[in-house]
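Progress report, Aim 2. The chain analyzed during this reporting quarter is listed below.
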Amino acid sequence: MVTNDKGIVSFKHKIMEEVCRLAWEGKLNSEEKENLVYKMVPGPKSDYCCIYKEREIVKQRIRLACAQCPSDAPESRGVVQVINAACDDCPISAYSVTDSCRFCLGRPCLNSCHFKAISQGEVRMHIDSAKCKECGLCAKACPYGAIVHLERPCKKACSVGAITYDEWGFCKINEDKCIQCGHCIHNCPFGAIGSKTYLVDIINAILEGKEVIAMCAPATEGQFGEKIGMGAVRETLKKIGFSDMVEVGLGGDMTAAFESLEWSEAYKEGRKMTTSCCPAFINMLRQHFPDVYKRNMSETVSPMCAISRYLKLTHPGCVTVFIGPCIAKKSESNDKSVQGNADFVMTYGELRAFMRSKDIDFEELDETYQEASIWGKRFATSGGVANAVMECMAERGEDTSAIKLLRCAGGEECKKALTKIKLGALQEDFVEGMVCPGGCVGGPSKHKTETEISRSRENLLKKADGRKVLENLKNYPMEKFSMRRDGKIEPNVNL
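Predicted structure tokens for the chain:
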């Protein structure tokens, strides 16, 4: 994965921070937004490009920071959005002739093209991007390898073919195909793709005196170094204005327990099943493999939804905010067909901007807070979901030795597994699908590198006690809220 230039990321987060400062002060109006544009790009010259273009980009980023679509785009239900003003520096042509062209007499490239897209220039061959169909035959035919394929980073990062370009070369996202994974965002070298953020809504809820409760993803442990664990994050969020925080690893315990019941039944019936935790994976199922979605997907809700429902039961009227490395969680939160899910989602980058808007930073704290088992905490890594489900089956005394698992991490691996299920060619019994390589810890909005996170994470997880999953859940009213996507409550379920 290509990581955005730090200057682009910090600039984007600075805009979020300033928008949040205005929201805290009750000054987020049209006049102050316009003033913010000139504060961010004062002029008279720009360090990067035309000053008017840069100011337009800031205007569109402010709209995204307010959960709106960019100004020059029609209203869209998608979380991932393109800032057209920033998307004009990539080459339009997918195939280009380089200076290595020898202008050879046989013209194999010209002869290989069925669309008359290649013509003779003065010193080398030329490809007309308007006629080129990107078949690649000319590149294969060139004996010097002088024709290169310039695939845009955003398109290359998309595993479902949701990105195309219009006649002007602007990136277009097909919402019927997009799984909202967000990988294109951090692969665009110009920061031209972003996501809607809901920080202003969260601030407004806090200012209105509502009980706003944070829910931190299992991937949080390790994101901010080994000295900042869940307890430290919890205390920091309280200082900002949250009423409390609950670790979503507890939701991992809940999901694993109920999904294990589904797995047991499916295994007896000889039916394949997929996990239900990664929202990008669920979007891939729903939009690209609808039959597999209906037939093979688990009916258990994700850990985020489980904790949100638990909190809404025990704290009526509360507002729940999920914090994690995932862009796709925003689309899950926006899916109103699943009742009781998180009201808002915040990424780690957005969290840091949120903290800076209140001039608050993390402080080290001796860890005393734990609600999840180690199995729920490990939901964040590839294989963690399947391992937790198998643990629950084992805790109930079931023999799991013969069960075959397929753990998929990354969009291409997930597609291959789902294609096998569709064709009836899957040898394994169950599929764990995570669209991000390495699992949630490798999510597009991770705070550090995967190596840094993993090292800090393991040291933090060593401090966790050895409680069992099912024993842990006896402390919670599991019979009083639904763990199913359809909202049905199973009061007599035997975990």
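The two ends are 40 Å apart (CA to CA). The first strand starts at residue 80 and ends at 82. These observations will guide the mutagenesis work planned for the next reporting period.
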